[in-house]
């Protein structure tokens, strides 16, 4: 359990360092998540030591939204002043996410269909 948590924290720290070093406008935890994803692709599976802490974090994921809720309350006046920009951003990002997710699912389905055809499996 501790080893898995250390892997997660190390990936986040590496992502933070990388984004500070590069000066990129990407949050460090997002870069760390990409680093973790690449590591898992290379390894080929999720190690059991990493699975347990990851499942624990997912189980309590709602607690991670508390800081965002506090931020909404603290900056409520600013959000009210710029509500149209915020609403446009939310709608736009939601539409982009839906389109990309649908495209990715269709691509994966086509890949699986082609792969079944090559191997003769059903």
Task: Describe the protein.
The protein has helices at 2-22, 28-43, 48-59, 66-74, 76-81, 83-119. The protein folds into 2 domains: 1-59; 67-122. The chain starts with a helix and ends with a helix. It is extended. It is an all-alpha fold.
Topology, element by element:
Blueprint lengths: L1 H21 L5 H16 L4 H12 L6 H9 L1 H6 L1 H37 L3
Describe, in short, the structure shown.
The protein has 122 residues and is mainly alpha-helical.
Helix-strand pattern, N to C?
A: HHHHHH
- In DSSP terms, counting alpha (H) and pi (I) runs of 4 or more, how many helices? 6
Structural class by sheet pairing and helices: mainly alpha
What is the helix fraction of residues, given as a range? over 70%
Radius of gyration: 19 Å
Q: Give the percentage of residues in beta strands.
A: under 5%
Low-confidence stretches: none
The biggest beta sheet is recorded as: none
Shape: extended
The termini sit apart by 39 Å
| Mean pLDDT, all residues | 91
Number of domains: 2
Tally of strands: 0
């Amino acid at each position: 359990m501790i080893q898995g948590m250390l892997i997660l924290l190390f990936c986040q720290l590496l992502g933070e360092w990388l984004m500070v070093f590069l000066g990129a406008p990407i949050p460090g935890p997002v870069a760390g998540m990409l680093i973790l994803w690449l590591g898992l692709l290379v390894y080929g599976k999720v190690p059991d030591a990493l699975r347990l802490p990851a499942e624990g974090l997912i189980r309590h994921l709602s607690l991670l939204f508390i800081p965002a809720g506090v931020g909404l309350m603290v900056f409520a006046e600013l959000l009210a002043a710029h509500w149209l920009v915020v609403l446009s951003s939310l709608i736009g990002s939601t539409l982009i996410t839906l389109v990309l997710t649908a495209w990715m699912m269709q691509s994966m389905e086509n890949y699986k269909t082609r792969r079944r055809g090559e191997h003769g499996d059903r």
